[in-house]
């Protein structure tokens, strides 16, 4: 998990608005602060992880066991629920898009924004370790976007999303796409407060990804099998991929798509519109 | 943290079968129920909890 992949290293998280080029560092290393139990949901300015930030009494006692009983993801969960309430209150459909690097998340988003343009305001949060390249691509579509650079981090967490949404200020009834850091492992663990998690698997990656990375495919409500225009050139069994995905998650919705040719994209848009209607009517 | 040791206590996965309602032990997300049901609701085994710390 994250301690092994190195993302718990404290390093600055940057949020960039590509429209102005203004960047803000939002994570200063902030170890050693302490607060009473139950006061965790104050406004954190620091966005680095708090996996090990629990109240360990420094008594100086020798060889004594300190009971901690802390869920390591409890703080993220609290912030995620705040995000969720914020989205519900403003009838915003927040969709967390996840995949390995290069599966086609940004291209899919570019096409999706163009197609949904008439019916809904679309906002985008871009997550990458470095560069504002993806935000620049989204900006070119006309959709408001902010880039979160996670530094050493391998995923977005709820606090990063909260700060990004502060900057974006999506309008009531908007669709908010969150393009997570390309990674099939850690992003599955971090609830952002989104309405739906969607995983994108490109046919060039191989059909067994769902059973190799079961946590990701289990966490998602929908899976897009992307780049299907390349099917004639790669060894990829659509049927086996679908079987593997359903083995891990029998209820997952599956959409084979090509953002390049547009094949299958209508079913994806229909699903998005239905989810949006549900958010607005609920 | 030099010389510190990390003890990881793995919890067995448990799930309820949505088909027959039986509570079963599972080793992976791909496991199925004895009744043939594959749609499982995982109820335990995904916890990430820091239980205690021994301070020297």
Describe the structure.
The complex is a heterodimer of chains A (282) and B (56). With 282 residues, chain A is an alpha/beta fold. Chain A is built from 9 helices and 10 strands. Chain A has helices at residues 2-5, 74-89, 105-116, 133-139, 158-168, 209-212, 214-219, 238-248, 265-281; strands at 14-17, 22-25, 64-71, 93-99, 122-128, 145-149, 175-179, 196-202, 222-226, 253-256. Chain A has a 9-stranded mixed beta sheet, sandwiched between helices. Chain B has 56 residues and is mainly beta. Chain B has no helices and 4 strands. In chain B, strands 2-1-3 form a 3-stranded antiparallel beta sheet, with no helix packed on it. Chain B is rod-shaped, with a radius of gyration of 16 Å. Chain A binds chain B through residues 52, 54, 56, 59, 61-73, 189, 211, 214-215, 218, 246-251, and chain B through 28-30, 38-39, 47-56.
Question: How are the secondary structure elements laid out?
Answer:
The complex is a heterodimer of chains A (282) and B (56).
Chain A: H1 2-5, E1 14-17, E2 22-25, E3 64-71, H2 74-89, E4 93-99, H3 105-116, E5 122-128, H4 133-139, E6 145-149, H5 158-168, E7 175-179, E8 196-202, H6 209-212, H7 214-219, E9 222-226, H8 238-248, E10 253-256, H9 265-281
Parallel strand pairs in A: 4-7, 4-8, 5-6, 5-7, 8-9, 9-10
Antiparallel strand pairs in A: 1-2, 1-6
Helix pairs in contact in A: 2-5
Chain B: E1 13-17, E2 23-26, E3 40-44, E4 49-55
Antiparallel strand pairs in B: 1-2, 1-3
Flag low-confidence runs of chain A.
28-55
The helicity of chain B comes to: under 10%
Q: Could you say which structural class the secondary elements and strand pairing of chain A correspond to?
A: alpha/beta
Find the structural class of chain B using helix and strand composition: mainly beta
Range of helix content of chain A: 25-40%
Q: What quaternary form is this?
A: heterodimer
Indicate the mean pLDDT of chain A.
87
What best-fitting shape of chain A do the alpha-carbon axes yield?
A: globular
**Total of helices of chain B:** 0
């Amino acid at each position: 998990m994250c301690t092994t992949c190195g993302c718990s290293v404290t390093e600055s998280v940057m949020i960039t608005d590509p429209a102005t080029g203004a960047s803000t560092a939002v994570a200063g290393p902030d170890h050693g602060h302490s607060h009473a139990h139950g006061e965790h949901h104050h406004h954190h300015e620091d966005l680095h992880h708090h996996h090990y930030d629990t109240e360990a009494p420094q008594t100086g006692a020798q060889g004594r066991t300190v009971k901690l009983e802390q869920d390591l993801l409890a703080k993220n969960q609290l912030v995620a629920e705040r995000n969720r309430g914020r989205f519900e209150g403003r009838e915003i459909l927040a969709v967390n898009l996840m995949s390995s690097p290069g599966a086609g998340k940004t291209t899919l988003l570019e096409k999706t924004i163009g197609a949904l343009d008439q019916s809904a305001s679309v906002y985008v949060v871009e997550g990458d370790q470095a560069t504002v390249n993806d935000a620049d691509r989204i900006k070119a579509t006309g959709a408001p976007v902010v880039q979160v650079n996670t530094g050493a981090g391998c995923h977005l967490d709820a606090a990063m999303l909260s700060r990004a949404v502060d900057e974006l200020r999506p309008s009531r009834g908007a669709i908010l796409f969150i393009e997570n850091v390309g990674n099939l492992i850690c992003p599955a663990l971090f609830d952002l407060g989104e309405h739906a998690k969607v995983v994108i698997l490109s046919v060039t990656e191989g059909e067994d990804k769902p059973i190799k990375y079961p946590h990701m495919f289990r966490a998602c409500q929908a899976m897009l099998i992307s780049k299907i225009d390349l099917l004639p050139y790669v060894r990829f069994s659509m049927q086996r991929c679908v079987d593997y995905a359903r083995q891990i998650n029998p209820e997952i919705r599956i959409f084979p798509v090509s953002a390049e040719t547009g094949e299958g994209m209508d079913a994806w848009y229909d699903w998005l519109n239905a989810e949006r209607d549900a958010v607005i009517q609920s | 943290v030099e010389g510190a040791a990390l003890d990881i206590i793995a919890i067995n996965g448990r799930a309820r079968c949505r088909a027959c309602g039986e509570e079963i032990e599972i080793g992976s997300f791909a496991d199925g129920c004895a009744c043939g049901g594959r749609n499982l609701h995982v109820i335990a085994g995904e916890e990430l909890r820091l239980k205690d710390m021994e301070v020297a």
